[in-house]
Amino acid sequence: MNVSLRQLKLFEAVARNLSFTRAAEELHLTQPAVSIQVKQLEENVGLPLFEQLGKRIYLTDTGKALQALCENILGALASFEMEVADRKGLKQGKLRLGVTTTAKYFVPRLLGAFCERYPGIDVSMKVSNQQNLLERLARNEDDLYILGRPPEHLPVNAHPFLANPLVVIAPPDHPLASERNIAPARFAEEWFLMREPGSGTRQATERFFAERGIALRERMTLGSNEAIKQAVIGKLGVAVLSRSTVALESEVGRVAILAVEGFPIRRHWHIVYPADKKLSVVSQAFYDYLTGEAEQRLDEIAD
Ligand code: PGA
């Protein structure tokens, strides 16, 4: 039997849609082009594959048997194609990440182990605040985004993967450093150092105090976590930051973490991409790595 793969693909589309017109649309072909190929296939098989009743077409028993065969053949071909793409894609490929300024404290460490596993992958990382990254996401400029909170107004896929607690920091000799159960209203009497508008950390902090009807005394707006840390160490005020940004300073006693009620604010990191985007093999591998192994890898790196 002299049957081509192309004929089988066209037949499968007609059989699934039970329409030559819809199959032609799906495959971006003209309807006569599809009809001719299916006719030739029918001649090769030597039995009718469709029958027409009124305006509708139906599969004959032979047509149904061929449809089942097509599912097997085309399914096996699709998995083979995926496997080949995997092999090619993970040997060499690009991964463009958009990472919030706060996530840059741990993402590079995770990337280390990932790049060791797939040395041919070329990774670029755009670091910016939440707002700028959402604008990049809307323009589809990167493959994956690591954000503190998935956007509400954009259709995305978002998966939480690591805890991201926000803590209150102060200089180690601050009068509140030795107190327990500090009321948020008492804490809000302190001068406050804030991240810039557009920062996810800032939004989460503002939300926390707004929900309690508390206004903050904002002394200064600083455009980076590092600047805020240094300003806290320099006794310019107190601040709320992600614990991952102050791990080292709190360990060596350069900043104190205050026991304010309601803190830490419990959040998670999210890996985010546009809802209608099909991930490349490389992006999918990094997505699986983050959602499956990130925690364990970070523990290993810390040990
Ligand atoms: P940011 O985002 O770096 O923009 O503050 C971090 C977060 O949303 O937790």
Biggest sheet features: 5 strands, mixed
Proper CATH architecture of the largest domain: 3-Layer(aba) Sandwich
Order of adjacent strands in the largest pleated sheet: 4-3-5-12-6
> What is the total domain count?
3
Level of helix content?
40-55%
Question: What's the overall geometry?
Answer: elongated
Termini separation comes to 64 Å
Structural class given helices, strands, pairing?
alpha/beta
Mean pLDDT rating: 91
CATH H-level superfamily title of the largest domain: Periplasmic binding protein-like II
Tell me about this structure:
This protein is an alpha/beta fold. The longest helix has 31 residues, at 61-91. It folds into three domains: 5-72, Winged helix-like DNA-binding domain superfamily/Winged helix DNA-binding domain (Arc Repressor Mutant, subunit A), CATH 1.10.10; 91-163 and 268-302, D-Maltodextrin-Binding Protein, domain 2, CATH 3.40.190; 166-258, Periplasmic binding protein-like II (D-Maltodextrin-Binding Protein, domain 2, 3-Layer(aba) Sandwich), CATH 3.40.190.10. The strands form four sheets. The protein has a five-stranded mixed β-sheet with strand order 4-3-5-12-6, with helices on both faces. The chain has a three-stranded antiparallel β-sheet with strand order 10-7-11. The mean pLDDT is 91. The chain is 47% helix and 21% strand. α1 (5-17) packs across α3. The structure holds 2-phosphoglycolic acid. 2-phosphoglycolic acid is lined by residues 100-102, 129-130, 148-149, 164, 195, 199-201, 242.
Topology:
Elements: H1 5-17, H2 20-26, H3 31-45, E1 50-53, E2 56-59, H4 61-91, E3 93-100, H5 107-117, E4 121-128, H6 130-138, E5 144-147, E6 156-163, E7 166-170, H7 184-187, E8 191-195, H8 200-211, E9 217-222, H9 225-233, E10 239-242, H10 243-251, E11 256-257, E12 268-274, H11 281-302
Parallel strand pairs: 3-4, 3-5, 8-9
Antiparallel strand pairs: 1-2, 5-12, 6-12, 7-10, 7-11
The structure holds 2-phosphoglycolic acid (PGA).
